[in-house]
Amino acid sequence: MQRYLKSKSFRFGVPFLLLMVGGSFGLQQFAQLRYTFSKKGTLTPEEAEKFGVNMKKAEEVTLETEYEKIKTIDIDNWQNVRGPRPWEDTVPNEAVPN
Fold first, then answer.
1. Distances in Å between the alpha carbon of 36 and those of 4, 23, 31, 32?
2. Any idea what DSSP says for residue 52?
3. Which pLDDT value is given to residue 97?
């Protein structure tokens, strides 16, 4: 037993492993408290109307309807416009010179 107690790997390794394993279990408990007592819920369309957001009904938004909208977009004719940098004094809707 004395041989193990004098070993550096035993003296420093075992407490380190205990700390890592025990810490992970402790953090798991604290993280579980966070999600257990969270006040998050789903947003109803009535609540969204109060904030000025018009939510569509689930039947109105389908994969097929969104695909039909995307098919009509012309992706071949576009212009690359550089956005303003924070240090530049430009108006966002300013015309870009060609």
1. 43, 20, 9, 6
2. T
3. 55
